[in-house]
């Protein structure tokens, strides 16, 4: 029961952060959503910082697992890149964006431990993308005009920005596709959805 409650708290908090940001949710909001007392949340996560730190760790683990799944499916580098881009596209459901992207907007109010976890998330994600881009260069799936590390940073920045801009559009999925399609045209040519 305790583990189930902790997971419920994390699930609701993650949804709230991805939709509203760090400063726009409270333990009272979570308690109301789940139907528990605030004291129950404090039992599992003594402070909001403890909760958010755990959220970022869990989010990073989930993305790392999804990246491993993408790699293990044996698809072409273009198809793997499309699958990765779709993780961000799918993240727009219910008007939500990347947890760490949302938290970055509040970086200055977050403690140093959470900041370190967010930096780790982006570093690990950029490294995975750099390896994927390198495989694409090696197999001549695409040309790399810059270092794969720089290109990975650019790609991740584009995906984060695409989520933000798509979020304000009337049709967020179409807006996201328009932005990412234009930026990734060369790398994704020949890959169907």
From TrEMBL:
<keyword id="KW-0805">Transcription regulation</keyword>
<dbReference type="GO" id="GO:0003677">
    <property type="term" value="F:DNA binding"/>
</dbReference>
<feature type="domain" description="HTH tetR-type">
    <location>
        <begin position="3"/>
        <end position="63"/>
    </location>
</feature>
<dbReference type="InterPro" id="IPR036271">
    <property type="entry name" value="Tet_transcr_reg_TetR-rel_C_sf"/>
</dbReference>
<feature type="DNA-binding region" description="H-T-H motif">
    <location>
        <begin position="26"/>
        <end position="45"/>
    </location>
</feature>
<dbReference type="Pfam" id="PF00440">
    <property type="entry name" value="TetR_N"/>
</dbReference>
<keyword id="KW-0238">DNA-binding</keyword>
<dbReference type="InterPro" id="IPR009057">
    <property type="entry name" value="Homeodomain-like_sf"/>
</dbReference>
<protein>
    <submittedName>
        <fullName>TetR family transcriptional regulator</fullName>
    </submittedName>
</protein>
<keyword id="KW-0804">Transcription</keyword>
<dbReference type="InterPro" id="IPR001647">
    <property type="entry name" value="HTH_TetR"/>
</dbReference>
